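**User:** My hope is that you can spare some time for a protein that puzzles me. As I understand it, each token names a local backbone shape. I would be glad if you read both lines and explained how they fit together. The protein I mean follows directly.
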Amino acid sequence: MLLVICLQGCKKLIEIDLPTDRITSESAFSADGTAISFVTNTYTTLGSSSGLDGFLSLSFLTGLSSDELKVLDAQNSDILSSTYKNKLSSMSPPEYWRTIYSMIYSVNVGIEKISESQSLSPQIKQYLLGETKFARAFFYFYLLNLYGDVPLTTTSDWRTNSSISRSSKDEVYLQIIKDLKEAQVLLPDTYKSGDLKTNTIDRVRPTKWSALAMLSRVYLYRGNWDLSESVSTEVINNPLFKLENLNSVFLRNSQEVIWSIQPTESGRNTSEAMKFVLTGTPSTDDYKPFFLNEDLLNAFENNDPRKESWIESISAGNIYSYPSKYKALETNGSAQTEYSVLLRLGEIYLNRAESRARLGKNQDCINDLNTIRRRARGSRGETVLPDYVGSFTQEALVSACLKERRIELFSELGHRWFDLKRTNKIDEVMNLAVIGKKTEWNNNWALYPIPDPELRNNSALVGHQNPGY
């Protein structure tokens, strides 16, 4: 039944006729078309309402947890107000745990069945193994950074999965790196269409460069500065990618995109636009009660073009500002113009810049930061957003890197929340942020709570809730 449900959701992203009868696990992986359909369902799920609201909602829920967003009525007890107040409960936490583990289970099935199959075309088999291993690493990265130590499962055996204990962060990161390095070898150099045979301009299936981009981030988070710099350089040097002008970064098939997800909701562009773009006063009625925090707005330098291009405001009694990186709501019968960007070149430049700062390669770091700033100002001249010049201590340069990350990557998939935690600045920042939130801060809340049903259903997790919940 799982396979039947998966295959029903795949037609939008691929051009392969799907069987209409019941499909067994053996037949699903005995032909290229059905095997591709099964793997494609991972991206279909991410592009659907269940996937976007359960996973890509990271962009606004982690923004509420940190200092990026405010919620209109912080007195409510709903998930948005609880997240903003850092008062989450194990009884009603964000659904990331269940959503991500469901997708991990699916890719584990895929890895096992594709590996066992003797009837798939060799190249298709190779590409699909690369995609599933990349996807598993991608999902575990987010689980780790949301929950800390998590159960590490690489099997579809439900008996094993139902009683597995939490693995250490180091152990899970080793598996993430292993999967990404294997995916790098298995995945194609170019973007493939739905049949995995022909090249396409759509950047919705992962490539070798997607795996390297994730390795760039993982090595940065692990403090492996040399490796992060090295793999970042590989991606940056690829002529497939270039920094786009600010208004083109998040368009479909932008050359800055390394991996994106095609929305699958009829008549809609991205979930980010639907969630962030205000068309009236922020309201709980349309599930858009949040807007940008003044702390973020004040962090922009004077005349920074990113503030002009990526932030808009609406006047409704008060002035409410909102992220406008994604601008298109309804498609109005036309083709979708924006896809949800999960990996892009701007981040890779900032990964390399910070790695170089921590390695003491100051001028190289400054060059990367200035590349991002020059893209931001376009042809408007250096006085709009001046270059970094002169001498910097290592501490000052790292701080400059983190500042640029805050401005460049705001409201994108939890970057700010994760950066605060990995750099051990979360207490410093949140102790100030909670003053405006009219609440208090406890370091335990840097991790989200494991949902109570998961604790009750897995005996190995009993008594192992994250502290503070």
About this structure: The longest strand covers residues 311-316. Residues 279-323 form one domain. Residues 357 and 397 are 6 Å apart (CA to CA).
